[in-house]
Amino acid sequence: MTIESDTTTAAVIKQANNENLKKNRIQVSNTKKPLFFYVNLAKRYLQQHDEIELSALGMAITTVVTIAEILKNNGFVNEKSIVTSTVGTKDAAKGRTVQKARIEIVLEKSEKFDTLMTAAQNAAANGKSEKKQTS
Fold first, then answer.
1. How far apart, in whole angstroms, are the C-alpha atoms of residue 1 and residue 70?
2. What is the DSSP string of 12-39?
3. In the predicted model, is pLDDT for residue 17 greater than 90?
4. In what order do the strands lie in the sheet with 51-57?
5. Which of 46, 121, 122, 126 holds its CA 20 to 30 A away from the CA of 76?
6. 117 vs 12: CA distance, rounded Å
7. What's the CA gap between 51 and 66, in Å, rounded?
8. Cα 27–chain centre separation
9. Global pTM?
């Protein structure tokens, strides 16, 4: 194998890894959707992937931390890693680059995840059938 093919292989592997990360990444905004939209979305992503990444900038960081804590305290996930950084973003109004805080929280499925999801789905199904019977 030549050095060029080693580099090409490494680039292909890195690109595949980046695509896999993007499939299980949730970018959170604190203005666009309610908190429990993201909590439920995270649960749906975890049904398809073993781990998810929650990320946010600036004021949305508190929302991401809250989502992670809700999932963790209810036994759905285990915390894998937390990374903080700053990123430069272009401020259209001021016409200059502004530094914003960024957080990425990686969560992995807990051993109890499937059991908890089954119980929640059964409870939701029972609640719907009871509503139909009383109507």
1. 49
2. HHHHHHHHHHHHTEEE--TTTS-HHHHH
3. no
4. 25-27, 51-57, 96-109, 77-91
5. 126
6. 35
7. 17
8. 7
9. 0.74
Residue 6 has pLDDT above 90, yes or no: no
What is the rounded CA–CA span in Å between residue 42 and residue 25? 9
Q: How far apart are CA 52 and CA 109, in angstroms?
A: 8
Start-to-end CA distance of the chain, whole Å, equals 71
- Helix, coil or strand: residue 49: coil
Please name the amino acid found at residue 27: Q
Of 14-18, 117-121, 131-135, where does the model show the most confidence? 117-121
The residue-averaged pLDDT of 8-12 equals: 48
The pLDDT score that the predictor gives to residue 1 is 45
> Which tokens sit at 82?
């937390």
